[in-house]
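The instructor's notes for this session suggest beginning with a concrete chain rather than abstract definitions. Hand out the sequence below and ask the class to guess, before any prediction is shown, which regions might be ordered.
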Amino acid sequence: MSLDKDDIRAAVASNILTEPQAASLMALADSRRGTRENMDGLDEPFELFRGFNEVFIVIGLVILYSGWMGLTGINSFLSDNANGSALVYGVISVIVTYALARYFTLQRRMVAPSIMLVILMGLSWLQIGASLANLLGQSGASTIALAVGLSTLLLAVFYYVFRIPVAMFFIALGVFAGIGALFVQGGADTPSPNDLFMLTNDGPFALITIVLGLIGLAIALRFDISDPHRVTRRASAGFWLHVIAAPAIVSTIALTLFESGGVAGQIILLALLAAMAIFAMIIDRRCFLVAGIGYIVAIAITVLDGNAAIVIFILGLGLVFLGAKWEGLRARIMNALPSFPGKDKLPPWGLTETSL
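After discussion, reveal the predicted structure:
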């Protein structure tokens, strides 16, 4: 069901809305409609900065924080020598970062400085958590678990207040690191990079990776469904969750298949890539495909040695083709699919010429 301007006027006449509220509502509706209609259908909205002034401010923030860490003693960060002063310095960093976020995010609506402030806030809470752990006599995995857990929890609060989409990326990363640290604290061996993605290796880490990846994907899809036209920050939050969920899922399966060897494993891997491409088109998320394939390229270079070039060449050729024909392919796939729950809540298809 949708409301038109007559419905809004009727709401004003019935004293349900005031005239200023009605004007604001119609302006918002026109803005959202115009945003989608003005898209050429070939882009997935993505924004890191809106001008060089934002880059200028980010450089200033990096230099400012580096100088602050130098003055207060950067060796206290995640160090066994951290003491009460490191805790105080971390609290000061949090207060200053919060004040800067109120100005650059809430007042100026700047993108790149907001992203950097999320990073600085996470680092500040990591310092506070590490200092607390050291003051409590913790060390090793216990320190990491407490520092990462506290930082992740407070970043979630930070996201609730400021709604900076990239915070979801670091929250997801923090959940993964925190759970891994808890398992190491519980007696599991410290994982190697392969342990994080190889389902055939001993230890729970690869299973944790793929399970958390699936949870992240589910939350990302929830964000996407709530904003199919992708004109709000919910869609941007979904974007960053896709960026971290895709490698967790795809790379775990791909590396396991790479290591298994044989023709059967290669065929299954090709089927996985095809299914991943189709899924990415259905949900209209190029970032899901790029993030997943990016890790497959890295795995191919590591595992296949001299044979990696042909794999990378084929993947690159496929990405170029999909990029050129994305909307047309997506429209055909969506029209061919039968109705399923949530299909009508996915981004619209067939907005541009669908010929291939």
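Then share the key points. The first helix runs from residue 5 to 13. The two ends are 34 Å apart (CA to CA).
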